[in-house]
Amino acid sequence: MESRHRLAAASRNGHLAMRRVERQHALVERLAAARGQRRTVSGLAREFGVAERTLARDVERLRDSGVPLRVVRGRGGGVSLDVAPVVAPIAFDLAEVAALMSSLTVLGPWVSPSATSAMRKLAAAVGSDGGSEAELRRARLGIERD
């Protein structure tokens, strides 16, 4: 079996995939904390205890998924999160909120403060407390009722 096929097969292993997802989440969190400053792939790889190539693959997967990462190659290069200072409001329907919540459940809503906060906000927005408070939360988050 070719090495890239073995690698692809190995990445389908549930435990390894989960470690990769957790590492990629933590990578985005670290880059967000750097506030636009470039971090070197070698430094990040050391922090995560993985090979530079593994970290480079993580960056590539995240970019392919649409995460706005800026990569500068060569001396003085590195990786940064290229985002606006303020995140624009997003409107989700109930099915989209459910998809996000199930993804957070797989990741583990306790894996980081931002994951915990996101899960709380999503749950509160779709919660049925029987009154206008839930509707206000949904409106604030831009969640549309089906």
What would you note in describing this structure?
This protein has helices at residues 3-11, 14-33, 41-48, 52-64, 94-107, 113-126, 132-141; strands at residues 69-72, 78-81, 92-93, 143-144. It is mostly helical. The longest helix has 20 residues, at 14-33.
Brief rundown of the structure:
The protein has 146 residues and is mainly alpha-helical. It has seven helices and four strands.
Structure keywords:
2 domains; Arc Repressor Mutant, subunit A
Shape category = globular
Low-pLDDT sequence parts: 1-10
**Count of DSSP E strands?**
4
Determine and state the CATH class of the largest domain. Mainly Alpha
- Report the sheet-strand fraction: 5-15%
End-to-end CA span: 48 Å
| CATH architecture title of the largest domain | Orthogonal Bundle
Q: In which order are the strands of the major sheet placed?
A: 1-2
Report mean pLDDT, rounded to a whole number.
81
Q: What portion of residues is helical? A: 55-70%
SSE arrangement, N to C: HHHHEEEHHHE
Q: Number of helical runs?
A: 7
Q: What's the layout of helices and strands?
A:
Blueprint: H1 3-11, H2 14-33, H3 41-48, H4 52-64, E1 69-72, E2 78-81, E3 92-93, H5 94-107, H6 113-126, H7 132-141, E4 143-144
Parallel strand pairs: 3-4
Antiparallel strand pairs: 1-2
